[in-house]
Description:
The chain is mostly beta strands. The protein contains 2 helices and 15 strands.
Amino acid sequence: MNQQLAGYAPTPVTARMENHGRAMLKVAMQSGQDLFARTGSMVAYEGFVQYEPNPPAVRQMASQWLTGEGAPLMKCTGDGLLYLADYGADVVVINLNNDALSVNGTNLLAFDAHLQWGVERVKGMAKFAGQGLFNVQISGTGWVAITSRGTPIVVDCGRGEDETYVDPDALVAWSPNLKVKGKRSFKASSMIGRGSGEAYQMAFSGQGIVVVQPSEDSTDRLRARG
């Protein structure tokens, strides 16, 4: 039996964050290199790792971070190997190098605690969503892990002058320097009788990337805030 399962055994550590299969994140934990992770995402760990739910840095954002958007975070500290997952979703590991990324809260799995982060208003979308839309923006040099419901596509918006349109329910992340605006439309579902079908897309332009998952999340992840 051990031989049959050998291919699933832990692999040697090669980076701070890396995939173990498509749906699991392996994090090399060291003292002084704390991590923020989605609460409840820990599936296993080796060594000595401690968890602090709702740490002060997260509580400071609580007034802006509604329960309906994104997920609470826990602070992870210690030495060892930490394994994280999110209900079998694909995990994408990103190494920021003095760069920034805007991520839907529900797609944020983990990131280095020393990175700068905050809840940001999505510019150009206020008239399409009342008081506006918000995402989590992360910047600096360090590691970030995001999730996708299926293998995502990364669209390079800098290859032409045409705008890139994305259904907000399929949007995972994007370069925050991109220009964003909204466009009203009708979903194809309206043609077969499932609701009014009225919806909008997010139009991106400029130099940067947009990460899109092949699934429309049923929850309203980009919601207006009071």
